[in-house]
Specification:
The structure is a single chain. This protein is of the alpha+beta class. It folds into 4 domains: 72 residues, DnaJ domain (Helix Hairpins), CATH 1.10.287.110; 27 residues, no CATH class; 70 residues, Urease metallochaperone UreE, N-terminal domain (HSP40/DNAj peptide-binding domain); 96 residues, Urease metallochaperone UreE, N-terminal domain (HSP40/DNAj peptide-binding domain), CATH 2.60.260. The chain has 8 helices and 13 strands. The protein is elongated.
């Protein structure tokens, strides 16, 4: 069983933010879509997801740190005794329990394990109550979300292993690697059902890209639109809008559409940044005729030292 801290490469005292940051970095690096020819990467991706599942749950992390569960979330043996490291030694007794070396006082040990006086109850082989009933195992899901749905926080529907469907509300700040916990939607257990852990994957878009909370777009414009300016239709994650192109626009000029980006965790939305790209036809007689009688004499590369 692996140590979840070692799997994520963080110290035992790491903060929640450090654990989340380490997971996101590894999840992006090891994602199966990026490592289709590397089965070991898929195995590590699964191990990293399991480690984050445990350490992101405050209760499970505390129980692991106390030695109550192992790195897989399973209960550890109720006694951490034995060996040759000192403390005390025990051997099986005739009554089915354990006999301990004479003179040793185990009161504090058993009180810590069983909540007080457990070592002195029950006689023979018993030390009090056993391992408490456990919740069922968590179940992991992956949900692919379109770029536009992630930007607009559109509701998503996921089908669970029992065939039931659930409508999900995407959280603000959603990105690839974001995890959503559905309480009680995992496997059944004596102490109740575990949880469903849904890991989000935001799919790439044909022409939009993301930069933090902003959406980037390279927008082709014609030469006459660049020279004369005017209104052009521009796609956004919320649908097409009209954008004003200033007269004399150059390739690389960036215009801003406010509030057309991704939603930040605080609730405010980023912007869409539109970079103009002048598209000049390769073989247009009219344009050739125009420039034959005109020449731009400006030193447009002087700032480059040439």
């Amino acid at each position: 069983m692996a140590d979840p801290y070692s799997t994520l490469g963080v110290a035992r005292g790491a903060s929640e933010a450090e654990i989340k940051s380490a997971y996101r970095k590894l999840a992006k690096e090891l994602h199966p879509d990026r490592n289709q020819d590397n089965p070991k990467a898929a195995e590590r991706f699964s191990a990293v997801s399991s480690a984050y599942d445990l350490l992101s749950d405050k209760d499970k992390r505390a129980r692991f740190d106390r030695g109550e569960i192992d790195g897989d979330g399973n209960p550890t043996a109720p006694f951490g005794f034995g060996g040759n490291g000192g403390g005390f030694r025990g051997r099986p007794g005739a009554g089915g329990g354990f006999e301990f070396n004479e003179g040793a006082d185990f009161g504090d040990i058993f009180e810590g394990l069983f909540g007080g006086g457990g070592a002195r109850r029950g006689g023979g082989g018993g030390f009090g109550r056993g391992v408490p009933p456990q919740k069922g195992a968590n179940v992991s899901y992956r949900l692919a979300v379109s770029f536009v749905d992630a930007a607009t926080l559109a509701p998503q529907r996921i089908t669970l292993q029992d065939g039931k469907t659930i409508d999900l509300k995407l959280p603000a700040g959603v990105e690839t690697g974001t995890q959503m916990r559905l309480s009680g939607k995992g496997q059944a257990g004596p102490a109740g059902a575990g949880d469903a852990i849904v890991t989000i994957e935001v799919k790439p878009h044909p022409f939009f890209t993301r930069d933090g909370d902003n959406v980037l777009l390279d927008l082709p414009i014609t030469l006459d639109e660049a020279v004369k300016g005017g209104k052009v239709k521009v796609p956004t994650v919320d649908g097409p809008v009209m954008l004003g192109i200033p007269a004399g626009a150059t390739s690389g000029k960036t215009l801003r559409l406010r509030g057309k980006g991704f939603t930040h965790k605080g609730g405010e939305r980023g912007d869409q940044l539109v970079r103009l790209m002048i598209d000049v036809p390769a073989d247009d007689p009219a344009i050739k005729s125009l420039v034959e009688s005109w020449q731009d004499g400006r030193a447009v590369r002087a700032h480059l030292g040439v």
